Amino acid sequence: ADIGSQKDRVVTEEEWLQRWEMSKIGFHKEQGHPLLQKYLDVLLNGRSGLRIFFPLCGKAVEMKWLADMGHSVVGVEISKQALKDFFAEHSLPYCEEPVPEISGAKKLQSTSGNISLYCCSIYDLSSSIVGKFDGVWDRGALVAVNPCDRQRYVSLMITLMEKNSSYLLVTVSYDPNKHKGPPFYVPESEIKSLFG
């Protein structure tokens, strides 16, 4: 499967920030993603009180949904606007503090403590900062990562996963020569080689 003209495409952090500022966020789902509801049992695997990671979280409504079910949610997002919108839209009080290990980064945490959202590049995170996770909801993250950064992204994600964690991944299927992305096309063969 050829990813065609997408191989060298790069979307900068500035472009992502601009999308948030201009509300060009067609990828945001107000009602949450139907696939998470469908495969929730796979993610939770009968377990409660999990730590669940949302890479490139935006203002995903599922973060509140899972936190309300008693899980601890951690997200990372480059756009502070997205994170502030998340707390505002759910009327959740939060506090903001610097992340000592990452220059310029902020952590926005719900006052209840069960939702912690990091405002920084995902590549600045490590398990020493955010710990490890029992579950990952990757909806719109791998497909948003620049094709040249996929290996780096997946290597990081693997270091953030507990031994028996579940990873739910949503991708999109289309002809990559007809659409420049994002979301980018990630062939199944590449997902297998990336995650092993």
List the helices and strands and how they pair.
Elements: H1 13-21, H2 34-38, H3 40-44, E1 51-54, H4 62-68, E2 72-77, H5 80-89, E3 94-98, E4 106-110, E5 115-119, H6 127-130, E6 133-139, H7 150-159, E7 161-170, H8 188-195
Parallel strand pairs: 1-2, 1-6, 2-5, 6-7
Antiparallel strand pairs: 3-4, 4-5
Give a verbal description of the structure.
With 196 residues, this protein is an alpha/beta fold. The protein has a single domain, classed as 3-Layer(aba) Sandwich (Rossmann fold), CATH 3.40.50.150. Helix content is 30%, strand content 21%. The protein has a seven-stranded mixed sheet, with helices on both faces. Helix 4 (62-68) links the parallel strand 1 and strand 2. The radius of gyration is 16 Å and the shape is globular. 32% of the residues are buried. This is thiopurine S-methyltransferase. It comes from Oceanodroma tethys. It is an enzyme of class 2 (transferase). Pfam families: TPMT.
Short description:
The chain contains eight helices and seven strands, in the order H-H-H-E-H-E-H-E-E-E-H-E-H-E-H.
Number of domains: 1
CATH homology superfamily: Vaccinia Virus protein VP39
Strand content: 15-25%
Elements, N to C (H/E): HHHEHEHEEEHEHEH
Main sheet makeup: 7 strands, mixed
**Structural class based on helices, strands and sheet pairing:** alpha/beta
Q: Order of strands across the biggest sheet? A: 3-4-5-2-1-6-7
Number of helices: 8
The CATH C-level name is Alpha Beta
CATH topology: Rossmann fold
| Low-pLDDT residue intervals, each spanning 5 or more residues | none
Which architecture per CATH?
3-Layer(aba) Sandwich
